[in-house]
Design a protein that fits this description.
elongated
C-alpha cells in the first residue's frame, strides 16, 4: 500500500479494490454453484468442520497480511452465510426440490 495524498485518492483505491474483490467473489460463487451441483443431498450444504477450518485459515492469513483477524472472520462468516443460502437455492433449482 502507498500513502495517499488526499481523501479522493483513498476512495479511488478503495473503489479499485472493491472491483477486484467483487470479481473474486463472483468467481467463488461459480464454485459454490458447482458444489451445489455435485452434492447429492441438501444436508451436505452446511459443513461445520469445513467452515471452521476456513475461519482458522483466514484468521492466520489475515495476520500475515496485517489485517485484524476479527475483521477477516466477521467478513468470512457473513460471506459464508450468504453462500450457504445461495447454495441451497442452487441445489433446489438444480435438483428440482422446492
Amino acid at each position: 500500500m502507498t500513502r495517499c495524498h488526499d481523501l479522493q485518492e483513498v476512495r479511488d483505491n478503495i473503489d479499485r479494490l472493491d472491483k477486484q474483490i467483487l470479481e473474486l467473489i463472483g468467481e467463488r460463487s461459480g464454485f459454490v454453484r458447482e458444489a451445489a451441483r455435485l452434492k447429492a443431498r441438501r444436508e451436505e450444504i452446511v459443513d461445520r468442520p469445513r467452515i471452521e477450518s476456513i475461519i482458522v485459515r483466514v484468521r492466520k492469513l489475515a495476520e500475515e497480511y496485517g489485517l485484524a483477524p476479527d475483521i477477516a472472520e466477521t467478513v468470512y462468516r457473513n460471506m459464508i452465510d450468504g453462500f450457504i443460502e445461495f447454495e441451497g437455492e442452487e441445489f433446489d433449482r438444480l435438483h428440482g426440490e422446492d
